[in-house]
Each structure stands twice: as C-alpha cells, then as structure tokens.
Specification:
Elements (H helix, E strand, L loop, with lengths): L5 H6 L7 E13 L3 E7 L7 E6 L15 E11 L3 E13 L14 H4 L3 H4 L3 H23 L3 E2 L5 E2 L24 H6 L8 E2 L4 H11 L1 E9 L12 E10 L3 H22 L1 H10 L4 H10 L3 E4 H10 L16 H12 L3 E4 L21 E6 L3 E8 L4 H10 L8 H5 L8 E7 H9 L19
Parallel strand pairs: 3-5, 6-9, 11-12
Antiparallel strand pairs: 1-2, 1-4, 2-3, 4-5, 7-8, 9-10, 10-15, 12-13, 13-14, 14-15
Helix pairs in contact: 4-7, 4-8, 4-14, 7-9
Length: about 450
Amino acid sequence: MKHIDIKKLYTDPAYVGQMVTVCGWVRTSRDSKNVAFLELNDGTSLKHLQIVLDKERMPEVSAFMPIGTSLKVEGTLVASERNGVEVNATAVTVLGACPGEYPLQKKRHTLEFLRTIPHLRVRTNTFNAIFRVRSVMADAIHRYFQQRDYVYVNTPLITASDCEGAGEMFKVTTIGYSEDYKSAEDYYANDFFGKRAGLSVSGQLEGEMAAMAFGKIYTFGPSFRAENSNTPRHVAEFWHVEPEVAFAELPDIIEIAQEMIKYIIADVMEKCPEELAFFEKFFEAGLRDKLRSVVDNDFEVLDYTDAIAILEKADVDFKYPVSWGCDLQTEHERYITEQVFKKPVFVTNYPKDIKSFYMKQNPDGKTVAATDLLVPGVGEIIGCSEREADLDKLLSAMQERGMNLEDYGDYIDLRRFGSVPHSGFGLGFERIIMYVTGTANIRDVQLFPRTVGSIR
C-alpha cells in the first residue's frame, strides 16, 4: 500500500501542510475526553510520530489504542513545537489488532527479559537503534573496501579444514546418529562429501587463496564456532569481516585495520546521531566523546612482552594469573585499554605457542608477527597477523600441532607456487557494534543469537 516513511516526514519540510499516509505500530497511546494521541513507529526512524485523533471526527477510537496494534493513518502533517511534526488524522485503518497480553507495554523492560522474546524485542527503541547502527556499519565496511579496490569474495560455509586448528567446529552430516559404522572413517566415507565436513570457523584460508590472485580481497559473512562458552562476548554464530592483502607485512595490516575502524566509526557518527545520543543516555555515558577520540587519535601499539610487564606490576587481583606465555584474558585486555592507555591498543608479537599455525614466525623463534586490537569495554575485536609465507616453517608449525596435512593441501600449495608476504585480520562484526553502541552483551546486537543450549 502507498505510504510515506515516517523518517521522511521529519527530514523533508515539504510535507508540512500536506495530506500524508503513514503505516506503523502503536508504541504508546493516551486518551482524553475530546482527543486521543498515538505514538506511531514504522521502523524507519528512532523517533515516533504523534497521531492526533479528534473525537468529534472519530468518536470511537478504542480499536486504535492498544500498544502493538498496526495502523494505516491518513491525515494532515502539521508543525508541532513539542514534537517537530505530527499528524491530524482524518482516517485510521486497523491493519492488525493486538491483544492485551502483548508483552511490550509501556514499562521499561530489562535486556534479559527481552532476550526471551527476540521476535518482538526488535520493536523496542533499544533494538530499533541497535539494528539501525548495525545496518549503517555493514554498509560502511563494504564501502571502505570497495573504495580501495578490494575484491569482495564469498568463501565456503561448509569446509573440510579447520582454520584455527582447534577442533571447535560444528559437524555437517546427512547421516546423523547411527550404529551402522565401525569407525569414524567408515562413517565419513559414506557421508555426503565422502569425508569429514564442518561449518567454517573463518574464511581466512580460502581468502588467502583469493588474495594470491587478486591482491586485495575481503570477506563479510557468518562464521560458526562450537565453543562451550557463555560469556557476554561469545556466540556460536557471528559475522566476520576478513580482509587478506598480498605484499603486506604486519605494520601494513595494522595501518589498514586502524584506518578501517576509524572510517566506520566516523560514518556511524555522521549518519546515526539520534541513535548514539540514545545509547549515551541509556547505555554508556560519554559514548560520543569516546568515539570522537578514537576517530581523532592514533591507536597504541604495544609489544606483548611489555603488556605482560605492565600486568605483572598492576596493583590488581586478577582472576587469571599473568606470566609470559599466557594468553591474555578479557580482564587483562580491558585493564590495558581502560586503565593504562584509555584507548584502543594493538598488542603485537605474541608467543607462537598460543597462536595459530598460519602466523609468521619471528626471527626470535619464540613469537609470531601477530596482533590483537583491544578496545575499552569489550577487549579483543580484531585478530590480525602476517601469514607464514615460508613453506618449511609452515609445515613445521602444522606438524608440531599434529595437524593432518592432507586436509590443507590447497593452502600448502600457496607456499609452493609464487609465495609472497601477505597479511590479514578478522574483525568480529558484533564486537565492534558492541563498542560503538555501548552494549555490554553480544546477544543484544544479533537478531537471533545462537548460544550453548539455546536456539529458536
């Protein structure tokens, strides 16, 4: 049906004084003797549109008042000192009635409660704002890479190799539970692909292959990790931004990562001022100043060894002990970014034993050319490294981890046929959304979060 987006009524003054038709859902309503008021939202704007119902013209308004009811409203758009604009309704049509048990009533609901109704929580102001920011950020990511001549590639979601080598993959099978096979080899030989397959934890390996032809590529799609984790920043399915750049060493990819983060944050600040004001009011005080500081200042670059020294001297009782060789935990990451530097920090040159097989080994024999970008309030949002381009060193790292080289034949070939220095990173899309919005739990920046024991 023909109607006008509510957002346009707030942004285009040409509509004032004109007859308009709008559609949306009732967010609030109030009735009085001579007039009734509705707040209508159609999802195009964080702001609701006030509808004024003159009871002389429409004496029976009860069907229009229940929260959650969907309406088509025709009327004149007029200027309003309080609301900017509002509609004096001449005709209202109920598109979908909403009963009294509708769970989103006027009171403020907790995020924990809203997670129990993901199909309805998107109608709240909070999720209206979160998903609008998410949409703008996705567009900014594509625009950043496209403007710089990266090739967008779609890597497989079903794979026979584990990028991280940690075995935390969801199995893909057409057989399911069965007692008809004597061994795993026999089982997989009879499965759809004739071998073990799983959902991809990352598109990196295939992305590297594309970069060896196109020079600069990026992927932007879902990744899946079967981690038995219930932390506020872990889910089983998340979206991953993964560029791979040929002829780039670690300092080059750090520069690209910083530039990209600044680009997408600046874009959100320009295009979502109302949403950021909302998040600053209800989620994180000082949010916009924080984001402005990120855009205007360089990130810190800190060697892992120096980070450990800082943590060992800290007058803090960390839950997880700190020593050289340990993997940094969220509490360590947040201390470094929030207490010490108060800005994003690239921690570089991690011990090779706690990092993945594909990372370039440094000359010291103990560390790899890797970095994690840590940000206040979240911790790690980017994992980044120069990739090992030396065939012998790559094979050695894989053999040390007991990996099946046959599963990585194509990847190994890259080091045999014209290998070059190259680097890349993985940005957890939901984590950067958390940072930009001040949202504390990753479950609140996804439409339907998948976690241990929870799927719908």
